[in-house]
Amino acid sequence: MKKKVTVIGAGNVGATAAQRLIEKHICDVILVDINGDMAKGKALDLNQAAPVEYHDSKITGTSDYTLTKNSDVVIITAGIARKPGMSRDELVETNSKIMTDVAKKAVDQSPDAVFIIVSNPLDVMCQIAFNVTGLPKNRIIGMAGVLDSARFKTFISMELDVSVENIDAFVLGGHGDTMVPLPRFTTVAGIPVTELIEEKRLNELMDRTRTGGAEIVGYLKTGSAYYAPASSAVEMTKSILFDKKKIMPCAAYLEGEYGINGIFMGVPVKLGKNGIEQIIEISLKDEEKKALEKSATAVRTIVQDIAL
Questions:
Q1: pLDDT for 221
Q2: In the 3-class helix/strand/coil scheme, how is the chain assigned residue by residue?
Q3: What are the backbone angles phi and psi of residue 247, rounded to the nearest 5°?
Q4: 18-58: pLDDT as tens digits
Q5: pTM above 0.85, yes or no
Q6: How far apart (Å, rounded) are the C-alpha atoms in residues 258 and 262?
């Protein structure tokens, strides 16, 4: 029986994620949006591409959550996008209301699903979904570190003129300006990146990674990144649906790991059929710990501000 994934939000991120899910032969997709006609139109267009792309996965567009019943994974992308000059934090009020509404509707239909949260501000949206769904912490996962790490890898690849396939890297912390790239754990074909890029330049690449989303917003003017976020969510979904147990940096609910309690933060996790099957703790140096604590404080401040 083919796997079933619900994607909530038929905007750029959601529609792109749906496209990649079906064209990679991963699952059937229910694409949900408050604008049901838009979701239906995009679904029909994607179905008509199937004979050209050679796949038999089906996509259904709707505003009716009953069609999402018994989904294996729910990807939530719904929310307003950032505008130039707008921080992720400024999205909180509007997107928290949207997240509360759609997460409740989705969990009513698919109480056994794993939820992947993409909406921004990511770490806070995870907290809201966790609270309103009542799901165990292993089944609420934030898509942040996969994207942030991909950006870091991209900039390293561009700097060294090497294949992105040679690069292993990951980023910890909140999804925002306080994220924590870790050059000490970053390698190029097994070679520590610190031996290939001088410290000053590497710091510049890490700063660019932290503001990677804002840089794209600045170019687009009226939207935000969607190709890479969609790809990141799809990669997480594959690991869950096929029980691949891949280790990825994702936003997870911490209860003492890394000395952090009661919030979602980006950390290395093992993703399998049960969602987060293990949070992996690595030894951090003092400066890395301080950076992670700073990131945690930033996330906790927003969570407290909206009285979660």
A1: 86
A2: CCCEEEEECCCHHHHHHHHHHHHCCCCEEEEECCCHHHHHHHHHHHHHHHHHHCCCCCEEEECCHHHHCCCCEEEECCCCCCCCCCCHHHHHHHHHHHHHHHHHHHHHHCCCCEEEECCCCHHHHHHHHHHHHCCCHHHEEECCHHHHHHHHHHHHHHHHCCCHHHEECCEEECCCCCCEECHHHCEECCEEHHHCCCHHHHHHHHHHHHCHHHHHHHHHCCCCCCHHHHHHHHHHHHHHHCCCCEEEEEEEEEECHHHCEEEEEEEEEEEECCEEEEECCCCCCHHHHHHHHHHHHHHHHHHHHCCC
A3: -95, 120
A4: 999 999 999 999 999 999 999 999 999 999 999 999 999 99
A5: yes
A6: 12
* Contact of 268 with 187, CB cutoff 8 Å: no
Contacts of 276 (CB under 8 A, 6+ apart): 137, 138, 139, 141, 250, 252, 269, 270
- Which candidate in 4, 42, 175, 238 is catalytic? 175
Domains and their CATH numbers in the chain: 4-142 (3.40.50.720), 145-305 (3.90.110.10)
Q: How distant is the alpha carbon of residue 2 from its chain centre?
A: 24
**pLDDT at 222 > cutoff 90:** no
Q: What is the distance between the alpha carbons of residues 10 and 38, in angstroms, rounded to a whole number?
A: 7
Model pLDDT, residue 84: 63
If 0-12 CB within 10 Å is exposed, 13-18 middle and 19+ buried, where does residue 38 land?
Answer: middle
Angle between helices 122-133 and 92-109 (to 10 degrees): 40
Is 175 noted as a catalytic residue in this protein?
yes
Average pLDDT, the chain: 94
Bridge-based pairing of strands 59-62 and 4-8 is unpaired
* CA 131 – CA 128 distance, rounded (Å): 5
233 with 116: CB under 8 angstroms? yes
Are the C-beta atoms of residues 300 and 89 closer than 8 Å to each other?
no
